[in-house]
Specification:
The complex is a heterodimer.
Chain A lengths: L4 E6 L3 H12 L4 E4 L15 E2 L10 H4 L4 E12 L2 E8 L10 E3 L2 H14 L3 E3 L4 E6 L5 E6 L6 E8 L6 H5 L11 E10 L2 H8 L5 E8 L7 E7 L3 E9 H7 L3 H10 L1 H7 L3 E11 L10 E2 L2 E3 L8 E3 L2 E3 L1 H21 L9 H8 L1 H8 L3 H5 L2 H5 L1 H13 L10 H11 L4 H14 L2
Chain B lengths: L7 H5 L4 E2 L6 E3 L1 H5 L5 H5 L5 E3 L5 E3 L9 H5 L6 E3 L7 E2 L5
Antiparallel strand pairs in B: 1-6, 2-5, 3-4
Classes of the chains: A alpha+beta, B alpha+beta.
Chain lengths: 434, 96
């Protein structure tokens, strides 16, 4: 392993495999290091891959990627312990090319994408942990240290796609001090159900599937819930602000159990047999929590750069990782061709991301994560929305119907929402969504 | 609790893990005694941090998700040394 290569990519998740794929296609020697026995085995997510970004990377991905179901039904659900209000969006178009989102098992999907990189000429090194950076006297990154015997890998450029804990970006000093408030913990149960039962309960057929995002599902802990369909399993889980768990003295698996026991969710998941429980951290801080994205000899992409977009109704991570990995691979290939992989030579990476959906969306929605995990969004508005909807559809004959305005005013007062806060949150939401 | 509600032990029995010989996370229970919060006890999704009667923490690395939550919430300098298990070992998720 002493041979020098052009590039080392750390982590064969969506960011790393895409970066390696682009480098290999550009004719560069690239080693893709993965600490799991196979790509994807250390990875977990909240269910949907938005694959359009792959159009420019693997042209026939929709036919070849190991996907579970195309999401043709996307619901946003607001809960209180005894109520539920759902906005349910269906589109036949999402079940046809060019498609929208798909569910998949990451052990399948990530392995497939890594194999694409290998087919293009990348060398995959599984079961290998990168334990640190190699630097020259000037501090420039010149390779990585691994846990293999004689495991130093020297190269011109390292692309760190080593996941949410991003030990390499931290070692390189690219992260500012991070607060645990900007991370959520995702936990989920995957439950086996007969395919016909899933399709009956969720109202879909064939390869079509459903993704439900849920607000008001996590009690005292800021966060959210989700339910989505695979072919023969249903996943149900929560994301919970890490700092909020201990504060509320609630364990993560209890939050999942409570969500699963809610009548609106139990109707979908009951009788499912547990096939796997899993957990993963999520960097939810968005644009303002991202590290510096490059230094001399190194680029950072994906969760390692906090690129997961957790902006309320939009929850996207795999697409962000693929977009960033692609830009990192292309930038590194150009820098290698130009013979300059210094920070200056790699500066095109940030520019490419700023003008692509990755940082454009993050920049536009930078204030949403904070708003979504805020006290009123989490603890007050779900109850207000559910009560208002319930009142609206409760027939109280012989008492005449009150007007909608009256109902709204009453609900606001009952839930103790001040006009000032309502106005300020409304304005913040409008600004955040501009 | 509902009869068909799985316990954390039952949940963890569904997780595929190749246990490495060497612990990748080490907890210094002496230092944990001085920690007022012990947020790890509540937050660890695998429930690996167990408080002891004398105020310390008993920790077993074997069932770990390698998620990093404990590292994030630990407030006591030096109480937790954190790394990944050696290559190929540790958690291996199949349906995540």
């Amino acid at each position: 392993m002493s041979d020098r290569v052009d590039a080392v990519v750390v982590g064969a998740g969506p960011a790393g495999s895409t970066a390696a794929l682009q480098l290999a296609r550009a004719g560069r020697s690239v080693v893709l290091v993965e600490r799991g026995r196979a790509p994807g085995t250390k990875n977990m997510y909240g269910g949907v891959i938005y694959g359009r970004v792959l159009d420019g990377v693997v042209a026939d991905w929709a036919a070849r990627a190991p996907l579970q179901r195309w999401v043709t039904r996307r619901s946003t659900m607001v809960l209180t312990p005894t109520q539920a209000v759902t906005l349910d969006v269906r589109s036949a178009a999402w079940g046809e090319p060019p498609y929208n989102g798909a569910t998949a098992y990451r052990s399948d999907f990530d392995r497939w994408l890594a194999e694409e990189a290998v087919a293009a000429g990348a060398i995959l090194l599984p079961s290998t942990v990168v334990t640190g950076l190699l630097r020259d006297q000037a501090g420039r990154v010149v390779g990585v240290r691994t846990d293999r015997p004689d495991g130093d890998l020297r190269c011109e450029v390292v692309i760190a796609c080593d996941g949410v804990n991003s030990l390499l970006a931290k070692e390189a000093g690219l992260h500012r001090a991070t607060s645990s408030d900007t991370y959520t913990l995702g936990v989920k149960e995957v439950l086996a159900l007969p395919r016909a039962t899933i399709e009956q309960r969720f109202g879909v057929t064939g390869r079509h599937g459903v993704d439900i995002e849920i607000l008001g599902a996590t009690g005292q802990v800021p966060g959210g819930g989700f339910v989505y369909t695979n072919l023969e399993t249903v996943a149900v889980g929560v994301v919970a602000q890490v700092s909020g768990l201990a504060k509320a003295k609630v364990r993560p698996e209890e939050l999942v159990a409570r969500l699963r026991a809610h009548p609106a969710v139990a109707a979908l998941t009951h009788g499912g047999e547990l096939v796997e429980y899993s957990a993963h951290l999520i960097p939810e801080g968005g644009y303002d929590s991202m590290p510096a994205l490059s230094t001399d000899g190194m680029l950072v992409a994906g969760d390692a750069a906090h690129m997961t977009l957790a902006a309320g109704i939009w929850l996207e991570g795999v697409n962000m990782a693929i977009g960033a990995g692609s830009a990192a691979g292309l930038t590194a290939a150009r820098a290698l061709a130009a013979g300059d992989t210094s920070e200056h030579g790699l500066r095109g990476y940030r520019q490419a991301l700023e003008s692509s959906f990755v940082l454009a969306n993050h920049r536009r929605l930078r204030n949403l994560p904070h708003l979504v995990l805020g006290e009123r969004t989490q603890r007050v508005y779900p109850g207000l929305i559910c009560d208002l909807a319930e009142e609206l559809f409760t027939v109280r004959d012989p008492i005449p119907k009150p007007g909608l305005t009256r109902l709204a005013l009453d609900a606001r007062r009952r839930h103790g929402v001040r006009w000032r806060d309502l106005a300020s949150d409304g304005l913040s939401a409008l600004r955040a969504l501009r | 609790m509902n009869r068909d509600e799985p316990t954390i032990d039952e949940l963890m029995a569904s997780v595929h893990i190749e246990v490495a010989a060497r612990p990748h996370i080490v907890v210094d229970t002496e230092l944990c005694r001085g920690c007022g919060q012990q947020e790890c006890v509540t937050a660890c999704p695998a429930n690996l941090f167990v408080p002891t009667a004398d105020g310390g923490i008993v920790f077993n690395y074997e069932q770990c998700f390698e998620c990093g939550t404990c590292y994030l919430v630990c407030n006591t300098d030096g109480a937790l040394s954190w790394s990944y298990p050696e290559g190929g070992y540790g958690v291996s998720m199949r349906f995540a």
